[in-house]
Specification:
mainly alpha, 30s Ribosomal Protein S14, Chain N, 2 strands, rod-shaped
């Protein structure tokens, strides 16, 4: 069940607060504590290819765009 499906039932259960409370208790999406989906790029929101070193929190594509402005040099 996705988060959007989870919230579609709310209007129907508004008139029955006890059932709404029980529905929320058993069907709410759980809080993520680990995994790749927890870390997201600050600029675009991508979850894969994440660079968290030095507190950057950028994906590799955004890092390539911003690297010169931040002060990184390309050695080759």
């Amino acid at each position: 069940m996705t988060t959007s499906d989870y919230k579609k039932v709310f209007p129907q259960l508004k008139v029955k607060p006890a059932k709404l409370k029980k529905y929320i208790k058993h069907n709410a999406p759980k809080e993520r504590k680990t995994g790749f989906n927890l870390k997201k790029c600050r600029r675009c929101g991508r979850t894969h290819a994440h660079i968290s070193k030095y507190g950057l929190d950028l994906c590799r594509q955004c890092f390539r765009e911003v690297a010169k402005k931040i002060g990184f040099k390309k050695y080759s």
